[in-house]
Fold this protein.
Amino acid sequence: MLKRMEPKRSWSSIVGGAALVLLSAGAASAEGKGPGFDDPNNWPQYHRSPNAWRFSPLDQINKDNVKKLHISWIHQPGVITHGLQATPIVIDGVMYTIAADNNVFALDAATGAVIWRYTAKLDPIVKQVFYQSASRGVTVGRGKVFIGSLDGRFIALDQKTGKELWSTQLTNMKNEYGALFSSPPQLAGDILFGGTTGGDQPIIGKIFAVNADTGERAWTFDIPKDDPKSWPGDSRNVGGGSAWLPGTYDPSTDTIYIGTSNAAPDFNREGREGDNLYTATVLALEPKTGKIKWHRQEVPNDTWDFDSAYEALLVPDGKGSQSLVHLNKNGFVYVMNKDNGDIKNVWQYTENMNWAKGVDPKTGIPIEPNFPETDKTKLHCPNLLGARSWNHGSYNPGTKLWYSHGMEVCNHVTSAKQEKPAGVGSLSLGLADIKLTDPPGKKADGWLAAFDPLTGKESWKVRFDMPPLSSVLSTAGGLVFTGDMYGNLYAYDADNGKELWKFNAGSGARGGPVSYAVNGKQYIAIPTGLGSHAPGFLSGAFPKIKDLPGGAALLVFTVD
Amino acid sequence: MNRQGLRFALICMMTSVFLDHSAFADDAGAITAPFDLSDPARIETGKKRFGANCAAYCHGSEGEGGKTPSFKGNTHFTPADAHKTITEGRTGSDVMPPWGETFTPEQIWELVAYLNYLSKQPASH
């Protein structure tokens, strides 16, 4: 029987100072109730909480003892293609995670012992497609473990046994250029929803929803809007879109937030000169029907592969309500009213940005965007991977800071008219050539920074010679965990960015670190094993990436 | 025979059927290109195909990106091996999908012609 972990020490004893006393009670305090603090021993969903904070209220591991952090156990799935990209789920002492090629594991979260393993029997076509092997996680709820499969299905497993309960085919892999699920579908009550890869494919990208208990289809949302003004001619039919990262579900308003991907062809807009709704858009949807509550398109007529796919962070606005804070690959953070999408502020995230003169902080509209043009080569910043890759940030309600990575990398893009993609593994990029490169007059690099998410005021920034691709974890122990492409894992002081702990994992970090407790003991779990397509892109700017090894090992740390 | 081996065998059989206009076997049995790999027109065609399908998301401009060794200045480059890899794909810590069902053997040889050209250029790094 698990018991709730009582913090051995309070924040006030760590940092001192009357101003911080309010923070000291951690999960037990009145200020510490509600989303972000509930269920402190577990990591029950992709971002831990519906507000996408990736914050653990546990503080047994803290600034004073983090140097004593040591390996507790290691799980090696035995498959390493594209590394480990998942964020593990932990519920009541059991960890649920996924490795390459849809290999799902239930592990004893205190020992790493395998409780069950499920390997999906995948359609052989998966070996033909571009986005192969990788998954970002599983979803657990209603007595089931859900995955989105690499052959275009939602699958439900029995949480206790790993036995397959139902499987629903949602995409046509052959006709839709291998549109598949690289992210776990999410729960909104009894609705299970999620989108596919598809922003780079000549299809009508979709968000799918099924009944979570039966797998029966509930609704389907076509992301390219059926509107000839938005999509001239036949452009909608090959317009891409989709939603390739997990959305979130806010039960307090019964709202799904999910961001969509870019329009296709990615870098050529000939024939699609419209705003291309609902690509590059944050959607607020009704879970029961899939109908739009509101939408906010961040990149009209996206021709830079910017998308709007990243997490919808809900943070206190200081006025008793919450704001939706949304990072776009285009280098800007959009602060919105979470109930209607109205713009409250827009602030610049990256140091190097030239695709537009800016974004109007009152309207959210790009100012004089510089579009790629057919047969011309242009330098655009940020690059196609974005101001940050999809590796998620973390918000700590104690410091009121948002910890997130960034990359200062640009790309030379030579736009080209898109011919009909040749085969199931082909993409619709509208490119003749692309090269990732340094910003003008600078050396490309990456960073971890702590921002006020509402204003963009920077509290601290740590620089890396190459952009880290790990998601970030923050804890009530005053710590920020992440890892870099070399495989160095770090814990930083949440207040000032001082490095407090470092561990060499041997292969880079690309997944989601989490924290949880079993039998009163706190653990930090960090997936390692460099993967995804991002390192390959980045090697144009960082040739040393070619020499970095792959791998797949889930490392779990604790203190005695 | 595993699935990949079977696929390769089938591809080899198909290749032999269409040998007259897709490839030749030299005296040592290695598959060779059905045209002169130094033909500028073939190199240019391969370059365009590479740019749209290979450079953009994996191998980078002029094949210098990705997790694979650069093609430029690569003294180990072997056309027959390159043709085989493009046709069948490769899986390890990274993955390259097979292109044998997307492009004809001749189109793949045009890609090889461009890579062969790159291998004779000086390395940038």
